[in-house]
Amino acid sequence: MPADREEFTRRIALLAERLSQKGFDAALIRYPLNIFYFTGAFVDGHLVITKRAEVFLLVYRTLGRPDFNPVAEVIPFRSLKKLPVFLADLSIKTLGLEEDRLPINLYRRYQKLLAAFDLGDISEIVRNLRAIKSRYEIDCLKKAAEILSDAIYSFLPKLKPGFSELEAAGLLEAELRKRGHPAFTRTYGFGQELAYGHLLSGKSGVIPAFVTTGQGGQGIYGFPQGPSEKKIQPNELILIDYAGWHEGYMVDQSRLFYFGNIPQKTLAIYDKVLALLEDLEQLLRPGISVQKLYERAVLKAEELGISEYFMAHGPEKVPFVGHGVGLEIDEWPPIASLDITLEENMVIALEPKCHVPEIGVIGLEDTYHITANGPERLTLFPRKIISLLD
Amino acid sequence: MPADREEFTRRIALLAERLSQKGFDAALIRYPLNIFYFTGAFVDGHLVITKRAEVFLLVYRTLGRPDFNPVAEVIPFRSLKKLPVFLADLSIKTLGLEEDRLPINLYRRYQKLLAAFDLGDISEIVRNLRAIKSRYEIDCLKKAAEILSDAIYSFLPKLKPGFSELEAAGLLEAELRKRGHPAFTRTYGFGQELAYGHLLSGKSGVIPAFVTTGQGGQGIYGFPQGPSEKKIQPNELILIDYAGWHEGYMVDQSRLFYFGNIPQKTLAIYDKVLALLEDLEQLLRPGISVQKLYERAVLKAEELGISEYFMAHGPEKVPFVGHGVGLEIDEWPPIASLDITLEENMVIALEPKCHVPEIGVIGLEDTYHITANGPERLTLFPRKIISLLD
């Protein structure tokens, strides 16, 4: 069920408050996903939200959905030239733009057009607002987790040794698609790309990729990450690191599967990774710094004797152990050596992973809602290596 | 078969020549897809190409592919601080950046770091180079078209009335995935999103969306374009507007399918759209302006009596009739009212589409290689409305 008007009204009020605090008269929002976040509308246009919580949606072409009535005054606006007059009429002088989204050539056009205004950056404000999830958003994330589990359960009986990773991925994705997945995974980081997630088998998992993820995978020429033509064999680990999706919100979950009897060495490393994750879960509370979480993970990996493998990505290590999730798969905050504090109602994924060259990736990933009473785990697939063809 | 070294050497030489012409000493390329275009490597880092065609790949973490030997000197480069010294040592003073890709907050970091250099924009240079395809690229596009046709042929016997558009899309996409599709469709335009393409049935086709495509579709809440929960019924048009993919290159193709006897009115409009497309094909030669192509399409639609429906997108019309394709689905040039001339070896898609409110989208789309002898059509699925369950 889509968010109700109160959800958007609340988001707009929070933005207006932050704008006021930071000395902005208004925000000029251009990135479609952020327009969606504040209004529920996906539209090609500009969203103006003032510090008095007035909301105007200036649309180029059409709102897209004739039956949708957003929490905003919708104004057809075919030419940007009218924008300065429109803003001045609202007594706006200081205007915040999305400096993390606008490419410099587009930004320059605004600079020229809005020369009479003081332009600033609202990236951090929007990022921080989006990082704190509402009840509605948590419900979406829970539903996303359910759908992901359900899709995996329907997929597993269809998976056979001898399938290529790509063929297997296509079958899992068809299950997700049927359940409302857009076949699109929104990412935040510059140049990042991700499609659904990674289905990798055996040593595929330890092939590095350019993306900042828990693992890479061989992928295909022109998209060198994720599933490849490699055939899935008995007696190797199958990693399913996929995002569940509901109404725009994503959870991130990694689980392992195996055709055959799982070797003791694999099980022993898996148990250590699980112990590490359970140890981190103890610390997941509002007020802890993400640096402390990351350092604890590194220390625990040392204690458990898995440092050599921990968060490796080919010859290198990736310097994180998790990330925020929400409307984008790499939301605020990263769980890395950074001066950021977890807050109540943030949602983060933790993904401790060991890259064992002769085996593949041994790891898992769950998504958590941070509450004052500790973490609420949202992803719900069983946390064990599942032996197939039992 | 991935591109050979000569392909990259040639691209680099052409870039070096353009840099020289435009007064740049070097290009600093940061966008992964552009790094791939010039070197074949997908990597998190910086690519420096000088006007003397020297090539340095400064990588943050790892090249990703230990067995891959790009046409570049690969230098681990963990800190940006060394960049100015590195560039100065190469006697670089004037440096071109990708102003169409870099968000302003990232660009500002370069401005600070590279204060001693004259910074300029290489967006147009790269865009124009990429618009002209090599033999290798044309071969990739042909292969992409073959794969797309092949996937559709395998999918059609599985398609049944009563499937939701999403379920049907999942089955088609599984066929594409098995044949090497990354489940990712690269787009260029700011804020544009596309997943594979659009599989729409009946009146779904005429539901507008915020993206600049030939049609929208209901989609799902949070991704309001493309396939939806709507069930595919007998006696309605099924539009399959999908991108075929091979080694990074995409062709764009739209075809129509129908369970039942196709009504005369639908066939009559389809014939007119096909006539319009065939008319445009006559003009597809190096030297024609895209404006002339677009105006001809509009004029021809009037002559044929389909103006009312032509390129409508809900209550509005979209002001184009095609677009370049290649590594991104919306490459240079757009076929719209713009002062751009078609050149030999450009590859463009033409997609005349009629939005008929009581029927849906009646249209088709093909991808063409522009040659001195006229257009070479790359997409090869039969150009007729295919009646299923014949």
Automatic annotation (TrEMBL), chains A, B:
Family matches, as InterPro entries: Creatin/AminoP/Spt16_N, Creatinase/aminopeptidase-like, Creatinase_N, Pept_M24, Peptidase_M24B
Name of the protein this chain belongs to: Peptidase M24
Species of provenance: Thermodesulfatator indicus (strain DSM 15286 / JCM 11887 / CIR29812)
One Pfam family it belongs to: Peptidase_M24
Domain Creatinase N-terminal: from-to ranges: 11-132
PANTHER family in UniProt: AMINOPEPTIDASE, XAA-PRO AMINOPEPTIDASE P-RELATED
Domain spans labelled Peptidase M24: 140-372
Entry's transmembrane regions: none
